[in-house]
């Protein structure tokens, strides 16, 4: 940042405008930018001069060159300004006395530090800007420069938004590492990154800092944030090493942006991306993706919009994903020397140069080595001799993944740590069995300490020893203390709850440790994770605990543990992923667990069958019914043979098999099995056990799929009431029962009751589960259907669109739940929206069901029946007639001639027979439908009433007006009595609009 800036607005009449040269250390750029902006708004000319202090140039000459600037020279005083070079206080005192003291009026200064400064800085007469607001700070700057401080007119203030007052944080700030007060050099890289981002077109402001491990990419990104953060309203730091952690961290930005979202990460993530894309509520945002080494894993989730994205990565392939690249090399030698001399003041410049050459100018290695070398009696020459002498194979084994200097230096550093505070090496090795990055070491302190290895028990039980180990690692820059969560204070960090371990350090320490330590330490971390298990994955309040644990499962290699507590943790994490809607992540974990546990425990081990249950649930959730049916059937047959039919594990496997049968549309088999399971659970556990209630719930699902709505309603009511008593009103299973009960009411035509219950249910779901949890989406969709049936088409339309859009974002366009929602939305849009959109959605649903489900599945026939109505509405009557007749035949074969779905298809088929000129067969079909509907559903069921109104229309078409009037009047009377005289269906029937039926895919 250098050069002159043009004033923002025209100079006002009054005192002559001045030229001010602001001299500042790069570290204090934000202060210089703010001061310059305030001066420019008053019409003054500002020249920015970033202070540099090359060691080879005498300080007096540098200060004299500064006096060549035009106008007043305003120095932003901080310890950084006087350390560059580095320079001693003695050098500065001499230079200030020689250059500034003879003509102090040329200079002015403001102080932004409380640190000790060279004593001669008093000649600058610095005005203190610490601990005050922006208005007072501006007044003091102007007073120090002998400039008027009258308030600016609003017209000038509103010309543009300037930099934020440096002492004020951006409105949203999270996850940014603490500022590295030893940051050195990198000025060209920082400036290049700034200009690339500022010069980018909207939506293209992405820059990747790429380079090898240890060159300081993360530190460079952090310094960028602190230097330029005042120009942003949102600054958010994301660990982007893995897609799951990237999604989780970015999703946490949603509440900070004030977005109305729930707790599910997929929903929050997509809401955040949409907000950033639109620049609403904040257009000036900066997102830092740290450690994004696998572009293919996350590039599709990188936000676009008016803000900027800064990426750190070892992978230059980001250039293929619309990112500008900036390569971060090792330090230039002068940067290395300056850094070493600040890190190890006892070393001379030639010694620093020798050390930098030996360590290949790698910043991470310079930081770690110089730190402990400064505290050591070892000379630089002796240390270099150690490097030349090779590696201690007992400490570090050679690995081709790292530079030789890094391997050797690490051997020496670990020896140093082992000799001074051996417990620090133990702690470091423990940390490598967590995921790299932020290490939740508090889990180690919170776990039970009995039966731990002696050296670990001593470390965890002695607070002084623990703090000493952490401080030793921190002193040598092996780890850094971090307060990762936005808004957390220093207290959490100082207690050692969160350490940050660099990926490069993590890898080399993890690979190269004695086998005995590896066995002991990995067991400790596994036990710590197991002890942290919240143990109730169905409790949404405990989900943050599981979200924290899941990334570490891989590094602790938990799938190779035979510890029952660790295996239970795996089950609970799978259950958490299932209930929270993280299906794909859960499936991947389940696959790895199946591969690991079969050889570890044996094919027939009870834990393998328990794992099978959780894995099958996740597969079933994404519609893989044929696969899960094979898995569950094998488990059922084995467990029945080995343990007997009344065994609880056998019953659980049978429960999964019944769900698979429902997904495969084998409803009669599913009902028979569900009835047997419910009876068995009730006999074994009684009525008041959650497993019995689960079986009772599933029995109602089977009945509902068969169209036996009255029976399903009675069972769902009893299940809901029992769950409220046994569990709690806001338990996910209780909330699920509310959805089912309201659905039964709606299927029976009790729309007002259903809408009332479902409105309350949606409110509870949003509070408990989060707005876009899959179960919440189901609740909202059910409410939209209630509103539609009740006649509130406006509210229903808004909710249909919202739920479908969010479900597509959260679960994907091919997920079974998305397809259910899309099918119903298409029907609504067909009647009350854009017919072309309805056709597009409907055809997509048909195609996806045909790919997902086996031939002859009733859902395929049902959505084909819906599609026929779209074809009718666009005038393709003959095509529509062919489609509906095929759908009717297929539905009859799949569900039976008396199933409500078949009866609904028949109502639509009769309408199209009339349209193509076959009123006689239409009347015959409608009469058969009325008869069957009356027998199955009753005379006043909405579907029966629709059939009766349709029959009246068919009779009129056959000129049988007397019978038509009789049938119509009886049906209208029943409609008025059942739904109300002003209900939309009653009004429509009275207007002689022929009724139609929409197929609604059900939850299985």
Keywords:
single chain, 1004 residues
Describe the protein.
This protein is of the alpha/beta class and 1004 residues long. It has 46 helices and 15 strands. Strands 1-3-2-4-5-6 form a 6-stranded mixed β-sheet. A 6-stranded parallel β-sheet has the order 7-9-10-11-8-12, with helices on both faces. Helix 12 links the parallel strand 10 (285-290) and strand 11. The two termini are 63 Å apart. Mean pLDDT is 86; it is low at 4-14, 390-402 and 484-496.
- The overall average pLDDT, rounded, is 86
Q: Which stretches are low in confidence, meaning pLDDT under 50 for 5 or more residues running?
A: 4-14, 390-402, 484-496
List how many beta strands DSSP finds: 15
Biggest sheet descriptor: 6 strands, mixed
Radius of gyration: 36 Å
- Biggest sheet, spatial arrangement of strands: 1-3-2-4-5-6
Structural class: alpha/beta
Distance between the termini: 63 Å
Name the beta content range: 5-15%
Shape: elongated
Can you give me a brief rundown of this structure?
This protein is α/β, with parallel strands linked by helices and 1004 residues long.
Question: What secondary-structure arrangement, pairings included, does this model have?
Answer:
Elements: E1 3-5, E2 19-24, H1 29-40, E3 45-50, H2 59-66, E4 72-77, H3 79-83, H4 89-99, E5 107-111, E6 127-128, H5 134-144, H6 154-157, E7 172-174, H7 187-198, E8 206-210, H8 217-228, E9 234-239, H9 243-251, H10 253-256, H11 265-278, E10 285-290, H12 295-298, E11 308-313, E12 324-327, H13 333-343, H14 349-358, H15 363-374, H16 380-388, H17 404-420, H18 422-431, E13 437-439, H19 442-446, H20 454-461, H21 463-475, E14 479-481, H22 490-494, E15 499-501, H23 503-511, H24 515-531, H25 543-549, H26 564-580, H27 583-601, H28 606-621, H29 625-643, H30 648-663, H31 667-685, H32 690-705, H33 709-726, H34 732-747, H35 751-768, H36 774-790, H37 793-811, H38 816-832, H39 835-852, H40 858-873, H41 877-895, H42 900-915, H43 919-937, H44 942-957, H45 961-978, H46 984-990
Parallel strand pairs: 2-3, 2-4, 4-5, 5-6, 7-9, 8-11, 8-12, 9-10, 10-11
Antiparallel strand pairs: 1-3, 13-15, 14-15
């Amino acid at each position: 940042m250098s050069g002159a800036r043009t004033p923002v607005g025209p100079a006002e009449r009054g005192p002559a405008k001045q030229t001010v040269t602001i001299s500042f250390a790069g570290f204090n750029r934000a202060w210089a930018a703010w001061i310059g902006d305030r001066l420019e708004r008053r019409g003054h000319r500002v020249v920015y001069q970033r202070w540099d202090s090359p060691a080879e140039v005498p300080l007096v000459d540098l200060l004299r060159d500064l006096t060549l600037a035009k106008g007043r020279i305003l120095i932003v005083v901080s310890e950084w300004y006087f350390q560059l070079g580095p320079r001693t206080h003695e050098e500065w005192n001499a230079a200030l006395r020689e250059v500034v003291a003879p003509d102090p009026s040329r200079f002015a200064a403001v102080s932004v530090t409380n640190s000790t400064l060279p004593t001669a800085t008093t000649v600058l007469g610095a005005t203190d800007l610490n601990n005050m607001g922006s208005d007072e700070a501006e007044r003091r700057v102007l007073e120090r420069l002998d400039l008027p401080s009258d308030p600016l007119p609003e017209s000038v203030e509103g010309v543009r938004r300037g930099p934020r007052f440096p002492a004020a944080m951006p409105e949203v700030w999270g996850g940014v590492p603490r500022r590295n007060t030893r940051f050195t050099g990198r000025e060209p890289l920082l400036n290049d990154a700034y200009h690339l981002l500022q010069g980018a077109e909207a939506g293209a402001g992405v820059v990747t800092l790429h380079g090898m491990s240890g060159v300081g990419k993360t530190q460079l990104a952090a310094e960028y944030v602190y230097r330029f953060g005042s120009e942003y309203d949102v600054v958010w730091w994301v660990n982007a090493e893995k897609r799951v952690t990237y999604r989780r961290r970015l999703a946490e930005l949603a509440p900070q942006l004030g977005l109305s979202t729930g707790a599910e990460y997929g929903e929050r993530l997509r809401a955040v991306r949409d907000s950033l894309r639109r620049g609403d509520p904040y257009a000036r945002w900066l997102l830092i993706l740290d450690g994004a080494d696998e572009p293919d894993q996350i590039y599709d989730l990188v936000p676009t919009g008016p803000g900027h994205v800064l990426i750190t990565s070892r992978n230059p392939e980001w250039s293929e994903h619309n990112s500008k690249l900036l390569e971060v090399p090792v330090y230039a030698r002068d940067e290395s020397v300056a850094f070493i001399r600040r890190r190890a003041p006892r070393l001379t410049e030639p010694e620093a140069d020798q050390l930098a050459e030996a360590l290949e100018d790698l910043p991470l290695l310079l930081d770690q080595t110089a730190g402990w070398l400064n505290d050591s009696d070892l000379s630089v020459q002796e240390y270099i001799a150690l490097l030349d002498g090779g590696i201690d194979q007992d400490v570090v084994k050679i690995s081709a993944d790292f530079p030789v200097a890094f391997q050797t230096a690490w051997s020496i550093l670990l020896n140093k740590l082992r000799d001074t505070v051996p417990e620090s090496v133990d702690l470091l090795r423990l940390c490598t069995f967590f995921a790299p990055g932020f290490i939740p070491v508090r889990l180690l302190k919170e776990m039970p300490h009995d039966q731990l290895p002696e050296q670990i028990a001593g470390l965890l039980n002695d607070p002084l020893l623990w703090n000493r180990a952490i401080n030793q690692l921190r002193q040598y820059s092996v780890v850094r203390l971090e307060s990762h969560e936005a808004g957390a204070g220093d207290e959490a960090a100082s207690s050692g709850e969160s350490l940050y371990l660099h990926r490069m350090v993590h890898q080399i320490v993890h690979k190269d440790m004695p086998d005995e330590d590896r066995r002991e330490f990995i067991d400790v971390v596994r036990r710590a994770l197991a002890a942290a298990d919240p143990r109730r994955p169905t409790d949404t309040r405990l989900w943050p605990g599981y979200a924290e644990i899941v990334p570490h499962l891989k590094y602790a290699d938990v799938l190779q543990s035979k510890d029952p507590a660790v295996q239970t943790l795996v089950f609970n994490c799978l259950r958490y992923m299932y209930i929270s809607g993280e299906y794909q992540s859960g499936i991947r974990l389940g696959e790895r667990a199946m591969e690991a546990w079969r050889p570890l425990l044996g094919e027939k081990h009870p834990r393998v069958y328990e794992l099978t249950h959780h894995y099958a649930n996740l597969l079933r959730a994404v519609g893989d019914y044929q696969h899960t049916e094979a898995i569950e059937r094998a488990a059922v047959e084995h467990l029945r043979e080995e343990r007997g039919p009344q065994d609880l594990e056998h019953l659980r496997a049978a429960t999964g098999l019944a769900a698979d049968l429902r997904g495969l549309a084998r409803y009669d088999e599913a009902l028979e099995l569900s009835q047997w399971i419910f009876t068995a659970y009730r006999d074994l556990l009684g009525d008041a056990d959650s497993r019995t209630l689960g079986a009772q719930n599933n029995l109602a699902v089977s009945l509902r799929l068969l169209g036996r709505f009255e029976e399903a309603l009675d069972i769902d009511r009893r299940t809901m009431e029992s769950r409220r008593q046994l569990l709690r009103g806001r338990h996910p299973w209780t909330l699920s029962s509310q959805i089912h009960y309201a659905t039964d009411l709606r299927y029976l035509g009790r729309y007002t009751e259903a809408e009332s219950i479902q409105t309350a249910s949606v409110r509870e779901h949003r509070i408990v589960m989060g707005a876009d949890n899959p179960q919440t989406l189901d609740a909202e969709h059910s409410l939209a259907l209630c509103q539609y049936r009740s006649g509130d088409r406006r509210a229903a339309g808004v909710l249909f669109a919202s739920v479908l859009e969010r479900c597509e974002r959260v679960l994907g366009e091919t997920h079974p739940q998305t397809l259910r929602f899309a099918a119903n939305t298409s029907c609504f849009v067909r009647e009350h929206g854009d017919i072309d959109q309805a056709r597009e959605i409907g055809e997509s649903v048909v195609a996806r069901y045909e790919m997902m489900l086996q031939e002859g599945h009733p859902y395929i026939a049902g959505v084909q029946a819906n599609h026929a109505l779209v074809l009718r509405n666009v005038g393709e009557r003959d095509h529509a007639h062919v489609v509906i007749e095929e759908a009717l035949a297929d539905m009859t074969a799949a569900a039976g001639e008396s199933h409500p779905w078949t009866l609904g298809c028949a109502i639509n088929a009769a309408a199209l027979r009339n349209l193509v000129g076959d009123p006689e067969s239409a009347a015959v079909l409608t009469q058969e439908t009325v008869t069957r509907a009356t027998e199955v559903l009753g005379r006043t069921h909405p579907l029966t009433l629709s059939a009766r109104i349709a029959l009246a229309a068919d009779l009129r078409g056959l000129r049988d007006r007397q019978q038509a009037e009789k049938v119509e009047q009886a049906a209208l009377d029943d409609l008025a009595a059942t739904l109300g005289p002003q209900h939309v269906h009653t009004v429509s029937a009275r207007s002689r609009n022929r009724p139609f039926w929409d197929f609604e895919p059900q939850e299985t």
